[in-house]
Amino acid sequence: MLHKTPKTSSSAVTRASQSHDWLSLHQARRQVHISRPPVPAPLFQAPSSVPSTTPSALSPSQTGSNIAQASKPGLQRAGAQRAPTSARGPRVAMAAVADEKADITAVSDTGLPRSAVVGVLGGGQLGRMMALAAANLGVRMKCLDPAPDAPASWIASQRLGHFRDAQAIKDFASQEGVSVLTTEIEHIDADAVEEASKALGLEMEPTPQTIRLIQDKFAQKQYFQANNVPLPEFREIKCRGCMEATGEKFGFPFMLKIKRLAYDGRGNAVVKNAADIDSAVESLGGYETGLYAEKWAPFVKELAVMVVRSSNGSVVSYPVVETIHKDSICYVTEAPADAPAKHLEAAKAIAEKAIGCLEGAGIFGVEMFLCRDGTILLNEVAPRPHNSGHYTMDGCVTCQFENHTRAILGWPLGSTSLNCGTSIMLNILGEADDDEGVRIAHEKMAKAYKTPGAKVHWYGKDGMKKGRKVGHINVSGASREEARARLAMMDPGATEALKSTAAAMQEAFGEAVPAQPQVGIIMGSDSDLPTMKAALEVLREFGVEGEINIVSAHRTPELMMEYARTAHKRGIKVIIAGAGGAAHLPGMTAAMTPLPVIGVPVKPAGCSLDGVDALLSICQMPKGVPVATVAIGNAANAGLLAVRVLAAHDPSLLDKMLAYQDSMRDMVLAKGEALKKNGV
């Protein structure tokens, strides 16, 4: 078996492979026992003989019966509680001799130490980016791939061998000192992985059962249907009669798909009418290939969510993104998706529910349809990092590849929040073969290098083929408008594609998606509105979206608490709070939100204290609960201060503020010149 060292380091050639032995003593010292939590429906292998129906047509008794028939030994029917597993894999025990580095490199009581070695099945671009993230964590990653000079070999040690070969996997894991296995591609031999995993006492994350289920897209849909995850209608196809019956039931067009080994549009065919039946079946290899049909989903947007599942079974999701495909290959993604908040919340809930049904740790990509009637339907799941999550490398606090590594090692997960207003990913696809394709790709890269907020990620693949993914560009912006404007500098067509789906959604839903407010303006009473509207006018002058609400600290305290605690989750970045008299609203809001709060003392009508009481109530806050307080009644300054807070991270807004200051200077100078010229 050949062993290939990373191109970026020769030290890997001389380093001896780590022994598994330290894992046993590491866990014995900590007396840690890991057991998997019960899941809603343990995984099963669905036989080709089990027909599918729509969720509404499948009764609970039928569901249990079907899955009981489909189950393999050791797996249980949907809804059954799975007994706690016995010690499985390296987090519990392996050998008796300890590596002295185990304790000193531990980062979690229930996880592997940093000195663990991660073995990746596959060495493509996902493995490459996984290895980059692991290197930043100080974790060694090695990959198994049959292709010399695989993209991951630039970063990780590569062993030449096939990830579908059980013996190759065993040799890879045992001879390379692998502590835990994972994959960057789902088209592995799950049986071979399970055999190697059991033989060596290694964990595979996600589990072979999960990989096996997801490999069969028909079984995957049956499984999610049994767990009440919303899906398009689907049914198994065995013969021409099945196709004709499907046309009558679903109508035309409908999708015909192969059960296994489909990706990037390969393995799908659109059946437009009855005359297309034979050609569609033939294009997918015939009925013996294993086919199923899916009712056409009348979607207005394609959505995706990256969900990371920790070793204890908890799930955390990234923002919902919109994905746009060209020739069935991902072309561009935008986070957050430009859709109403209620639909984004529904998509997130469905994605988390789907992944919560599975076993194993790691990152999962969940693709969904937002349909014309507003429903969200799950399309499919990938048990690995996904193209729709590449934006996280520059647009989120913790990227999908780092969180995948954290999850499979049993470490605490990182934040999945955006670190900018909008993050867009543009795939660099081969637009021609060989040198011409290379030239076109590098022209796009050259534009990216000149674009603010853009970052290029090149995969290091050998050769260029039309339609091949060779890299991607991430574009960040403080707002959706800014990010799209930057995208247009590199690919105007991608920007127009994003705009076109927004128009289609507006037509379907009958209303435009409101712009995301960045500043929240609240006041205790509508009597404060004459004062507070000046803040809103300033925001509009600078093109900053704001929202305005009546929230009383005294009369609606529950509403105030809810507003303060959820504002940051809705994208609000600054809160302006106006109050008169006792004026508790700004301070109480500041006590319950992580956002900056600007207080505006309001002079109530008929008040003899001229707003001084409100000023003192707001500005005299205790240490630890700051409120930036402006002059009595000066809501305009509150608006300007909010703009300055936002401008610190928004170059375009900063330019507007500089221009505003210049205009004030010019106005004062002009008045001075007029006074000199005209006198008093």
What can you see in these coordinates?
With 680 residues, this protein is α/β, with parallel strands linked by helices. It has 5 domains: 3-37 and 84-214, Rossmann fold (3-Layer(aba) Sandwich), CATH 3.40.50; 233-296, ATP-grasp fold, A domain (Dna Ligase, domain 1); 300-500, D-amino Acid Aminotransferase, Chain A, domain 1 (2-Layer Sandwich), CATH 3.30.470.20; 519-649, Rossmann fold, CATH 3.40.50; 651-680. Helices cover 37% and strands 19% of the residues. It is built from 23 helices and 24 strands. Strands 11, 12, 13, 14, 15, 16, 17, 18 and 19 form a 9-stranded antiparallel beta sheet that branches. Strands 1-4-3-2-5-6 form a 6-stranded mixed beta sheet, sandwiched between helices. The longest helix is centred in the C-terminal third of the chain and has 28 residues, at 651-678. The protein is globular and about 95 Å long. The termini are far apart. Residues 1-98 have low confidence and may be disordered. Keywords: ATP-binding, Decarboxylase, Lyase, Nucleotide-binding, Purine biosynthesis. One of its GO terms (biological process) is 'de novo' IMP biosynthetic process. GO terms for molecular function: ATP binding; metal ion binding; phosphoribosylaminoimidazole carboxylase activity. It holds the Pfam family PurK_C.
- Looking at CATH, which topology of the largest domain would you report? D-amino Acid Aminotransferase, Chain A, domain 1
Largest sheet: 9 strands, antiparallel
CATH superfamily of the largest domain: ATP-grasp fold, B domain
Round the Cα radius of gyration to an integer and report it.
Answer: 29 Å
Supply the CATH architecture of the largest domain.
Answer: 2-Layer Sandwich
Q: Which CATH first-tier class of the largest domain would you pick?
A: Alpha Beta
Derived structural class: alpha/beta
* Tally of domains: 5
Runs with pLDDT <50, length 5+?
Answer: 1-98
DSSP helical segment count:
23
State which percent range the strand residues make up.
15-25%
Distance between the termini: 95 Å
Q: Based on CA inertia axes, which overall geometry fits? A: globular
